[in-house]
Amino acid sequence: MYLSIKETAEFLSISEADVKKFIQQKKIRALFDGSDYLINKEQFNTHLKQMEKYKQLVEEILSEPIPEDLDVKDED
Q1: Angle at the Cα of 50 (from 41 to 45), degrees rounded to 5?
Q2: CB within 8 A of 31, min separation 6: which ones?
Q3: What is the DSSP letter of 28?
Q4: Which CATH fold would you assign to the domain 2-63?
Q5: What is d(CA 42, CA 18) in angstroms, rounded to the nearest whole number?
Q6: What is the pLDDT of residue 76?
Q7: How confident is the model at residue 54 (pLDDT cuts 50, 70, 90)?
Q8: How far apart are CA 37 and CA 30, in angstroms?
């Protein structure tokens, strides 16, 4: 499924200018059909899955309780 620049910006929750910038920097692959860019939506699936895994990992780390008695030795 191909998206326009506007649809891609909405899908990624970024501005259209950022989408254009990423296309120029070749961070987003796009096809130019003569009048507009077409962006394959499937290229974002892996990235979004990795971001979800990262968010879960961060939530797990943040939800771990801090130990009450830390064995910290003062070096002074």
Answers
A1: 15
A2: 2, 37, 38, 39, 40
A3: S
A4: Molybdopterin biosynthesis moea protein, domain 2 (3.90.105)
A5: 19
A6: 58
A7: very high
A8: 6
